Amino acid sequence: MKAEPLLLYVPGLRAKPPPRTYARELFRCLVEGVRRIDPNVAAEIQEHEPCFDIAGWTYDFYGEHREIGLDLPGIERILKQKEPSPRDIAEAVSTKRRFVRWLYRLADHLPFLIPQLADERLELHLEDLRRYVRNEFDVAEAIRRLVKLPLRAAEKSGRPVLLIGHSMGSVIAWDTLWQMSRESGDEVTIDLFITLGSPLGQRYIQRRLLGADETGERRYPGNIRRWINIAAVGELTAIDVRLRNDFGEMIGLGLVESIEDFTVFNHYRTNAELNVHSEYGYLVNEVTATVVRDWWRDL
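^ thats the sequence. predicted structure below, dont judge the formating
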């Protein structure tokens, strides 16, 4: 290993636990996932725990932290339960969930339906997204600065970077990388970009990305070497689980070597309720673990 790698995690919407506490639990899940398939590499990663960092933007956005105690029972459960149970799978593929996914996909193509379908939770998410897109009080720029700082430091130190964006964090990561490569001229290169439960496949999101009004190379970031997208069965955020068909032009333009899509079962539960969008479930998943393990071994 030539230089200490950086695994930088960008969280999605909603308040999160304090950054150090949150990072510790995320790292536990990631290491456990790798340990299940390769104990030796898991031990190496654990020895380099400082290489894992998060861009902790949510406190500035929401003005509060989430109590980690709310997450711990679900984390402990998924660290012990290696595979989804028949019940988990049945709920993920249930007729009700598939119907809701179909409605969300329809609304993505016909935006005037969104107010008719949005419940209170979705309305809050949409309002948070609007705050970010409108850059109210420079909030979006402040968020992106928190991602740029560790990336610039890593580039200066010659550290290879694995950037993980969960949910809205993948949108923030995209916008940050676009700015760095198309506006500020940074020489930062992301060795591997992993998106988890990403809404980047939604037309609603794509029309609001930085670079959306550009054409050709300038439409996309120019600093990603490889991109792997992972989406869970039954997702209501990653309603389009395939991103290669949306961003494949980047390959033809020579901006990225490859874009790969994987579908997984995420069996994390919060208070017994299945949460296929959970970051903890994504990080402990065997597919995510294999991607991280392979990247680590190639350093």
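The chain has a mean pLDDT of 93.
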